[in-house]
Every structure is written in structure tokens, then in C-alpha cells.
Amino acid sequence: MKFNRRSFLAGAGVIGAGAFTSYYADWTAADAAAERQPLRMPPLIDARKEGNAVALHVQAGTTEFFPGRASASLGYSGSYLGPSIRVYQGDDVEIAVTNTLNEDTTVHWHGLLIPAELDGGPHRIITAGNVWRPALPIRQPAATLFYHSHVHGRTGVQVYSGLAGLLLVTDEAERALALPSEYGVDDLPVVIQDRQFADGLMVVPQGMMTMMQGRRGNTILSNGTPNATARVPNRLVRLRLVNGSNARIYDLSFSDNRTFHWIASEGGLLDRPISVSSLTLAPGERAEVLVDFSNGQAVSLKTAPDTNMPMMTGPLAKARNFAKEILGGQGETVLQFDPVGGHGAPSKIPERLVERPRADPSKANTRRRFVLNMGMGGMGMGGMMGGGTDSGGGMVINGRPFDMNRIDEKVRLGDTEIWEVSGEMMSHPFHIHGVQFEVLSRNGGKPILRDAGTRDTVVIRAPVELLVHFNQPAEIAPFMYHCHILEHEDNGMMGQFRTI
Ligand code: C2O
Ligand code: CU
Ligand code: CU
Questions:
Q1: How far apart are the C-alpha atoms of 267 and 181, rounded to whole Å?
Q2: Percentage of the chain with pLDDT > 70?
Q3: Which residues contact 410 (CB under 8 A, 6 or more apart)?
Q4: 212-234, pLDDT tens digit by residue?
Q5: Which ligand 1 atom is the nearest neighbour of the CA of 110?
Q6: The pLDDT value given to residue 347
Q7: Distances (CA, A) of 172 to 239, 307, 482
Q8: Buried b vs exposed e over 259-275: b needs ≥16 C-beta within 10 Å?
Q9: Please, what sign has the CA dihedral across residues 181, 183, 184, 185?
Q10: 443 φ, ψ to 5°?
Q11: How does it assemble (predicted)?
């Protein structure tokens, strides 16, 4: 990244947006010329081999993201991120979560279809020194799921610091396909996160701009590795791409523009692979893809520039656009691949994957509308900036900020509904707990390619219609729905529903 700090500061000075100047200057201060590192691989825990009893310790520690520079960080049974836990459809898996931090936490099993009291949302707090032992019934098709902290008001900070990991559901249908599935060899989890580093140490951004945009960073990590390189076999490899960032949306493609094959969305395998040359991935979203490395050539996974900023007007918009130009550049490398063994035999992509029953839109008996709002329509950013606090800021859904003690929606258990969701100011990844849904329409038209499959998270701005099936009880605790830009969520862009 070429960055002329002086001209940027001078330019921003002219338009008089001090807060923005320092914000973006910090953001671009990372040293881009660091050495490559081997892709770190979260340890795999196969729940069956552990008798379906797994232990996780929520702990504070230090992580050398850059050699010799120990950053304070959080992790599950490790210093940053957590183990990948493989679970089997049909099993009940007890996970004993011990909180060794000196603050509250929760562990939410994002994407798991389980009753609300097991879901680990903001109501299921694990206080310092205590243990929570949910027994999770695994009753859904193979999929890549994502566990992470969900303690209200601190989700953003805890996840940014490292509290996230993967849950890999497997089933017979998936195994019968003989997809690449040797963990860490030809089946690689890739948790993509942007983090802020200053002088080689991770810092957790704070402040007004952070709250508006969501916490971002000047360095892209894959499984906690900056400048990561993965050695892969010279054949078909499965990547489980997970956007574990707090706020950033990636637009991923390969440096040689090769085609790759999207095989699974958040809800699991698609009915057939979809060939793509790029794929967007928003916070909370996961996509499994097959990539053919049989030509033996090194290649990198890249992302297009970060452009999902709140829409602003006036001088602040100028500062933003100016910053965007500087930050944009050619995009960034996420992860480099070094195939081993030279030229290999070209691989065959399966033609069909799984048959999944389709939900029937004519069964939907209720329609609900949700608008994700940043609460400053008309008044512009200027008024907000004046306040300069880190709290509030008008993050709401349908005009109301999140309230732990208010149930926003009551849904009949077993029902199928249409949820029409739209967002203001910028794109928002909308997530619903305890369900899977399909995209029925986008902006009044057909869904886009990327809307395929069953999902639990979807990027919205213009109205999107979701066909949602509710089959998990929420009597003891409610389920959440929210923006997965974690700072929006922490600041109120969240609601809760019961199924009764
Ligand atoms: Cu991944 Cu409610 O969150
Ligand atoms: Cu969730
Ligand atoms: Cu949002």
C-alpha cells in the first residue's frame, strides 16, 4: 500500500475534519512490508473422540501475531481464537465452558439450531470464575458454524480480542460426497479478520467513528496470522471461509482470477456447486469453496477495497472519500497459497451436492418488517460528531434500541414467516438466531447469485424478503436478531423474539 501520510494529513486539514484525520491516519499506519508467516491452524477437537464432552476455557493471554511482539488477547483454550470443534448430526454434545476472565462473557453457537436457553446469547451470562455446561443437540445438516462471545455491550471488544472459533457439523450426506475433508491438509478453515496494529501490537480501536463504522483494522489476519501463507496439496482443496471481522465486508477473489466453486452457505451444502470468480463475505457469514490447485502455481486470495462506510454528507463525506481513495488502492492480500508437488492431475468437481427440502413461500402466514437504522437521517454526521461520545448514537431496529427486558416479536413455533429487512446509511449483515432462512427477493427483484442456499446471516440495504422457518423453542430465553457489525449490535441494533 502506497501512502503519503503528509499529503493526506494536509488534504484532510483543508477540509477541516480533525476527528477523521487522526482516525484514518492511524488506520493506515501499519507496516505493509512484514514477512510472510505459515497459516496458523486452530487445533481440531473431534467431539466423538472425546465422548461428546468437550471443555473450553475462556482465557486472557498474549499472542505473537508478529514475531517477538506479544499482544494482549483473548481466546478459548488458547491465547487467540479457539479450537475447531467437529460435531456429528444426531449427537448430543456437552460443552463445558469455564470463564477464567475477570469479566462476564457468553458463548453463542452462531448457526446452531437449538432451543434458545442453550443458544448462549446475551441472557446466558457466564460470570467470572463460573462454568456453563450446555448439552447441545446436533440436529441439522453438515455446515460450518461459528461460536463467539455475545455479552451485551462487550461483544465487539471480546470478539475483536479473540473470542471466536468454529463448530464443524458433519453428517452422512456430506461424508458420502467424499469432499476434501482432511482437516488442516485439504480442508482448511480460514477465519478472516481485520485487526488494528500499532508497532506490531494489536490495539482495540475506540471512539465515535469506531462505533459508527464498526471496529476495523489495518491488517488482515487469517486464523490470527498476518501475511499468511498456506501450503496446500496440488489438488482440490476445501476452504471454509469465515468472516470473523467485527465490521468489514470482503470481496474475495484470486490473484489470477481463477474460477472456484462455492459449495456451502451458512446453512450447509448447496444443491450443486456454483462456479464463481469472486465472493463477498460479510461479518458472521461463512462460505465453503473448492479451489483447484493442480496447476501447482502459487496464488493469493485477495479482497477488493473496503467501501462499506456510512453515507455522509458535507465536509465529512469529503474526508471519508479522500480516505477511501488512499486506503482503497489495489485491494489487499488475505492469504497466499503455495501448492506442493508441482503439477497435479486436474480435479473433478461433483455435479450435485445434496437435496434440501425447499421452504414453501405460500405457507408463510405472517409478514414482519424491520428497518436497521443509524438514527441520524436528515441531521447528518455533523450533529453526531459534536457529541463525541462512545455510547448510544441511535443504533436501532424499527426506531427502538435493544432492551434486554423487552420482547420485540412473538412468533408461533413451527411457523414460516416472511421477514422484510432493510437498512439505512450503509450495508448491514442481518443475522437471526435459532433459524435458517432463504432469500426470496432483493430490492423488489430476484435474489442475487450470492443469496443462494439456506442461511442465518445476509447482507441487506435495500429491502430483502427472507423466508424464515421457526422450529426452535424460545420459552425460557428469547432469541436475538441483529446487525452483525458488532459495534452496531452492542450499541442497540438488535431485537429479540420468542417462539411460543
Ligand atoms: Cu454471530 Cu447474535 O451472533
Ligand atoms: Cu447467532
Ligand atoms: Cu449495522
A1: 18
A2: 86
A3: 497, 498, 499, 500
A4: 999 999 999 999 999 999 999 99
A5: 1
A6: 85
A7: 20, 41, 32
A8: ebbbbbbbbbbbeebbe
A9: negative
A10: 50, 40
A11: Monomer.
Assess whether pLDDT exceeds 60 at residue 13: no
CA of 245 from ligand 2 middle (Å) equals 14
Q: What is the pTM of this model?
A: 0.91
- Which amino acid, 200? G
* Number of Cα atoms under 13 Å in the Cβ half of residue 123: 20
Give me 287's grid cell.
Answer: 462460505
Cα separation values, 330 from 305, 323, 348, 404, Å: 7, 14, 32, 43
C-alpha cell at 418: 416472511
CA 287 to chain centre: 10
Q: Grid coordinates representing 94?
A: 456437552
Q: For residue 164, give the ligand nearest its CA.
A: 1
| For the CA of 434, the nearest ligand | 2
- What is the C-alpha separation between 85 and 74, in angstroms, rounded? 18
Q: Inform me whether the pLDDT recorded for 388 exceeds 70.
A: no
Cβ–Cβ under 8 Å, residues 269 and 276: no
Residue 430, all three cell numbers: 442481518
Helix (H, G, I), strand (E, B) or coil at 500: coil
C-alpha to C-alpha distances, 500 to 32, 116, 237, 420, 481, nearest whole angstrom:
53, 12, 43, 21, 17
Pairing of β 250-254 and β 299-303: antiparallel
- Cα separation of 448 and 374, whole Å? 25
Please state the separation of Cα 230 from the chain's center in Å.
21
Residue 37 alpha carbon to ligand 1 centre in Å: 30
The rounded mean pLDDT for the chain is: 90
CA-nearest residue, atom 3 of ligand 1: 110
Distance CA 266, CA 110 (A): 10
Q: Which domains, from first to last, does the chain contain?
A: 44-171 (2.60.40.420), 179-340 (2.60.40.420), 361-499 (2.60.40.420)
Using alpha carbons, select from 285, 431, 310 the residue that is nearest to residue 373: 310
Residue 32 reports pLDDT greater than 80? no
Cβ < 5 A residues, ion ligand 3:
428, 483, 485, 488
Residue 329's pLDDT band (cuts 50, 70, 90): low
